[in-house]
Amino acid sequence: MDCRLRRGATTFGSVKTPAELTETFRANGLKVTPQRQLLFGLMHGNTVHPTAEALYAEASERMPGISLRTVYQTLTDLASMGELRLIDVGSGATRFDPNTDDHHHVVCSSCGEVRDVYVAGSDRLKVDGLDGFTVEQASILFSGTCTACAAEVDKVSRASARGEERKPTNPKERMS
Asked: Is the pTM of this model over 0.90?
């Protein structure tokens, strides 16, 4: 199987612009507010796969007073219109993905970073044991260690070999 990873500020063809999302909301009879327009902008081209809480924190910095309820409602509306995908990477919190292209995900088991990956031929997978079960959607989740975390592990290993004490650089380690 051929797997490709797309990174960085790649803009995907299926992701609508904030102006297009505004029109989609209006066409569906939904109210377009400055708060929702801010969220459209924050999700456009977003490759981080944020949780609602992370998006709320970012939106609150730009527009104090925005409510978490507004964030959830806007994300739910976008998902029900097919403009976002809800994804579960095993972290306990739903993440939101504005890339609606046929793709899958890779998650770092150390820092939790999530990236889009494209798996050639995934639509032709043959699965044994379905026994008449009708599959509506399939999702492949790869897990492993991202480049940054692998470099940190390598750095710690080299420091340990030299007898040096290490200072944590991973945000999760600094909090514990």
From this structure: no
